Amino acid sequence: MKYTKAEAKEWARQNVVGQWTTMMTPFTADDELDEDGLRRNIEHVLKLGTKGLGFSWNMGEFWSLTKEERQRLMDIVPDIVKGRALTAFQITDTSIKEVVAMGQRAESLGYDLAIIASPYIMAKTEGQVLDWVSKVADKLNIGLAFYNSPQFGIVLSGKALSRMAEIRNLSVIKEASFNMQISIDTHLEAGNKAVVSTPDEEIFFFEPYYGFHQQVMFANTSDWRFDTENRHDYVNMINAACSGDLEKSKSLYTKIWPIKKVSRSWWSRLASRTGGALPVQMVKYWGELMGMAGGHVRMPILPLTNEEKEELKKDLHNSGLIK
Question: Which of 104, 283, 291, 297 has the fewest C-beta atoms under 10 angstroms from its C-beta?
Answer without folding.
Answer: 291
